[in-house]
Amino acid sequence: MKNILLTIIIVVVVLILLVGLIFVFGNNESGTDSDDSSSNTDVGTDTDQDTNAGDEPSLDDTDSEVRTIVVSGENFKFMINGQDNPDIIVKEGDIIKIEFTSTGGFHDFVIDELGAKTDKINTGDTTTIEFVASKKGTFNYYCSVGNHRGLGMEGNIIVG
To answer: Which domains does the chain have, with CATH numbers?
Structure first.
């Protein structure tokens, strides 16, 4: 009798662990394998310009313009203009507006050096922040939830 009860308890614990793993990693379409799909393509948008994936953005407009960048987050990457974790290039002094939507999982969008951080949001939710690209340099943008950054949910913003 004790052996049957012990077997049932072990099976239940294993099932709970499997359900937990499926919940945590179930939305990860590409897995955590490094397929090197990160792109070095420069991405930037402004409010009066449509930018398609692969197009070089025009950065020669007026100083201190508002640059709207639409970002989606899923396990474990950011998508901008159809590209995984691309470099974002802006000018010093630009006002940056990030429209961030989680398309899979619980995420946020953070750039420590520029004081930019969205709320942490669930799948289907959107949040918006604005900040000034106040200093030149290359800075990391990333998701601060759990170990998402370590799993590849990061990229660079280059302020020139």
So the answer is: 37-159 (2.60.40.420)
Express each pLDDT in 146-159 by its tens digit: 999 999 999 999 99
Torsions phi, psi for 131 (to 5 deg) = -155, 165
Q: How far apart are CA 91 and CA 51, in angstroms?
A: 17
Q: What is the predicted pLDDT for the residue at 107?
A: 98
Of 68, 29, 38, 62, the closest CA to residue 152 belongs to 38
Contact 118, 98 (CB under 8 A): yes
The model's pTM: 0.64
Query: In the β-sheet with 42-43, what is the strand arrangement from edge to edge?
Result: 42-43, 87-90, 154-159, 137-142, 110-111, 116-117
